[in-house]
Amino acid sequence: MRIARFTTPEGEPQFGLVETVGAGTATERTIINAVKGDPLYAPLQPTGERFDLDDVRLLAPVIPRSKVIGVGRNYAAHIKELGNETPDRPLLFFKPNTSVIGPGDPIVVPDWSENLHVEGELAVVIGRVCKEVPLERVSEVIFGYTVANDVTARDVQREEVQWGRAKGFDGSCPLGPWIETELDPRDVGLTTTLNGETIQDGRTSLMLYPVADLIVEISRFFTLLPGDVILTGTPAGVSRIDHGDAVNITVEGIGTLANPVLKR
User: Fold this and answer.
1) What is the pLDDT of residue 25?
2) H-type alpha helices, the chain
3) Number of CB atoms found within 10 A of residue 82's CB
4) Helix (H) or strand (E) holding 122
5) Residue 161 CB: number of other CB atoms within 10 A?
6) Nearest to 62 by CA among 167, 175, 138, 155
């Protein structure tokens, strides 16, 4: 099941179920069936309204009320390409919810960085309050999965021990296009294209710490709340982005998150 957050030109943000109708035919199209309220907190109740995907604006599928937790250096090839040491345990950092933007929203290059990087990632959306989650119960706390871009000011990251400014600035966490609730995250493909050229091509099976292990570890230290988002790390191929670039990140089984890059 795919759950999108969207708005129409006349309406307020709302949620809906994404569905393909007429698959494999000349009339194939994607529609959104609107639902009442927020699916994270209430059962799905269709309103009866249906919209063509082309007629709505997709928004970030979730705006965390609490936090975005990032995982650094979770792919060996990415560690190697930047010349870093392999961590002994998951390396964690935070992004505030003000860093979140949605599909199609511009990634704005800040005037204080000269080396902004794209980092395509699988993201996990938490569905319930949880703490110290045992491995065998991890699936119970996951609401679904989406695509993320852990935009990083690499020059600032290298200058500071803490990564708050480098990874937490406004607009540094594009999420979308929707939440997929039915996904096995253990071995899915992840690709990133920059202006049509593939720069990242990895699989989640190459993570040093898989999704389930990450949730076990993270929940040891932090209570996770509904809507919290965990970024699971990026494969090799991170690249500099600048004004006029187009970034597309695709996770197999979910979809593609597309954002332009803008310097004001």
Assistant:
1) 85
2) 76-81, 138-141, 154-159, 164-168, 211-221
3) 13
4) strand 120-126
5) 5
6) 175
Specify the length of the chain in residues: 264
- Sheet architecture: strand order including 116-118: 152-153, 116-118, 239-241
- Counting Cβ atoms within 10 Å, is residue 72 exposed (0-12), middle (13-18) or buried (19+)? buried
| Contact status, residue 165 vs residue 152, Cβ threshold 8 Å | no
Bridge partners for 34 per DSSP: 16
Residues 191 and 121: their CA atoms lie apart, in Å, by: 9
Mean pLDDT of 223-231: 98
Q: Taking the CB of residue 215, how many other CB atoms lie within 10 A of it? A: 25
Q: Bridge-partner residues for 82, per DSSP? A: none
Report whether pLDDT(255) > 80.
yes
pLDDT digits (tens, 9 = 90+) for 152-203: 999 999 999 999 999 999 999 999 999 999 999 999 999 999 999 999 999 9
> Coil, strand or helix: which one is 158?
helix
Helix (H, G, I), strand (E, B) or coil at 79: helix
Neighbours of 116 (CB within 10 A): 26
CA angle 251, 257, 259 (to 5 degrees): 145
- 16 closest CA partner among 28, 30, 6: 6
Separation of alpha carbons 100 and 113, rounded Å = 19
Nearest CA to 78 out of 159, 190, 186, 242 is that of: 190
pTM over 0.85: yes
Question: 236 near 79, Cβ under 8 Å?
Answer: no
